[in-house]
Amino acid sequence: MNSTMEFTDFDKEVIGQNECRVLVIFRASTLEEQKSSARQFKLQLEHLMETYGNDRIWQNEKFTLKEDTIRGIYCLFGSTDFGDCISDEWWIVWLLFEASRSIKNAFCRIIDADGEFLLIEAAFSLPKWIDEDNSDYRVWIHDGNVLLLCPDQENLQAYERCKPLSRNEAIQQISTGENFDIPPKVNRSIRLRLQEYPETANNHHRAVITIPRSIAFLLKKDKHLVSKAVTAFYYRDPISEKKCDSMKKFYPKDLVTMTVNFTPLLYAQLAQQRTRKFAPFLLPSQGKEPAFTRAELGMKLTCGFEILYNSNEQEETKGYIDKSLEGAVFPTDNELKALPLINDNTNFMNIDPDDLEDMMNNRMKDLEEFGSEKENLDSTGSVSSDDEQAPNTSRRNRPEDFNEQDLKDIISKIEEFVESDEESSSGRPDLYGVENQEVDDEEELYHYDPEKRDGIFQSSDIIESNEGEIELDETKFFNILKEPSSDVNTKANPSALESTSSESSDDELPGNMNLREYMQAMDEELKSQKIGNKEGSSGSMKDESSDLGIDLNLAKNLIEGIQANPDAYGGPISTLLDSLNIQVPKGK
C-alpha cells in the first residue's frame, strides 16, 4: 500500500495509472460504533485473505487499509498499486463484496485511473440517468451488492440528469438511507466478472529454474520478492542493465535448480523478454533442453534481483534483503532435492490472434446479453418474445454464409420500400432524421421534357397523379432493372452509341470494330465471367436468379463486397440496408 498517501489526498484527481483507491465508511450513530465496525471489517478482510488468498503473489503491493477520522466520520482507506495485473484489482473487489456481507453497515468505494470502473464493467446495464460525468461518489459496495446513490427524483425530472456528489454529500445521503438503488442488471454484470474468485485467488504458475542459492533462500522466506525482481527486470533500462555485467550482489555461483512460483503474468513477462547473455553467466547450448531454458530463466530472474537491489527507488527492499541475508542459513542440497520439480503448462502464452479475437467477442457478447436481457424466462420458464428475435439481431456479430433465401429477403424488402406509397416524401424524415422540406414555389420544381431527355425512362414510364405530382411507374422501373444492363442505354437512346462512335478514332479500338461493337463485345465477355463467385458456381447462380426476377449475381456481389471490406459498414449501402432492417453479416 502507498503508505505516504493521507486521507486528505484521496480525492485528488491524479491517480496513478495502475493504482486503485478504496474508501470504507460505516453508517452508525456514534463514533465508537463506527470504530467498532471498522475493526470488525478489517478483521473480516484479513480472514478472507488468509483463508482464500494466503498463497497469492501480488504484482506490486499487498492490499491493506488504514484507519482515520475525517470530520467526525471514522473510516478505512488505502491505495494499492496493482501494476500490470488487473486481476489484483478485481481480487480486491471480491474481498470488499464478501466483507460487506458480514459487516452490514459498511459502504465501500473503489476507484482507479478510469474512475468508477465498476460502471465500465456494467456499461451495458446502467440506468439512463448515470454516466461518467455524474458518477463520482454514487457507486458503492454494500451488503455484497453494487449500490447506487440516486438523485432526487424531482431534480432528475426537472433537469433530466444529475450532478456528481461530493464526499460529504455522499456520506450525508448514506447516513439518511435515502434514494438507494441496487440495480439487478449491474450486479449480474459484476458477478459475472467475479465468478472466478476465490478459486483463482492463488493462481500460480510453477517453473523449474536455476538460480543462486541465496536467491532460493530469499524466495523461500518471502514469495512476494519474485514479483519485485521480475518487474525490475521487465522495466530495466540500459543504465540498470549494466549492473548485470558485474553482478556484485548476486553473482551466479553456488547455483541450485528448484521450482519457483510465479503468477501466469509474471512468468510471461519473464519468459518472453528477449535479452543478451550477460558476462557472468554460463549458459548451456541453446538446443540442450531443458537445461538451457532453466538457466536462461534463472539468469533473467537473478538479474532482476540485482537490478532491484541497486535501485535507488527500492531502498526499503534493499534493506530487507541485507537484513534477511545477514547470518542466513541457506537451504541444503538434500532439502532442495526433497522438493518436487514441476513445470506447469505454458500454452496460455501461445494464443492465436484469431482465438484472442474470438475470446474478446465472446466476452463482449456475454456483457451485451447481461445488459440487454429484460426477462429471459416468464413464470412458466418459457423464453420471452424478445429473446426469440435474438438470433436475427445478433447476426452481424456472427459471420455466416449468405444463401438464396437471404438474398430473396433483401430484394423483397427493397421492392416493398420502393413500392410503398403509404406516405409521401414531403415532411418524412430521411435516413439521418432530417425532414424533407416542402417546396411551395412551383417554378423551382424540376420541369422534365420527356421528348428531349436522353434518360432510360420514356414518357410512358411517368404517371401524373391527381394532385399534379409526377410519380414513377414502379412496374416498368423493375422491368428495366430485370433487363440486361447492356441493352438499357441502346433502348433509351439508340443514337447515343452511334454519335459517340463517330467521335472516336478507329485506331483506338481493336480490329475494325467501332465503339458500339466494342462495347457490346465487352458486355458479352462480362456476362461470361464468373464475377464474385467460386469456380463452377456461375451456372447455378444464373438458374437460381431466374425465380427472383432480378440479377441475383449482382446482389450477391454487392453483399460479398460489403463483407470483404469492414470499412464499408456505416457507408451509404449499409445505411440503406439498416434502414430497411436488413442485417448484413460480416465475413470471416
TrEMBL record:
Transmembrane segments: none annotated. Residues 397-416 have a biased composition (Basic and acidic residues). Residues 378-394, 486-497 have a biased composition (Polar residues). InterPro entries: Ecd. Residues 371-441, 485-511, 523-546 are annotated as: Disordered. One of its GO terms (cellular component) is nucleus. It comes from the Eukaryota. This is SGT1 family transcriptional regulator Sgt1.
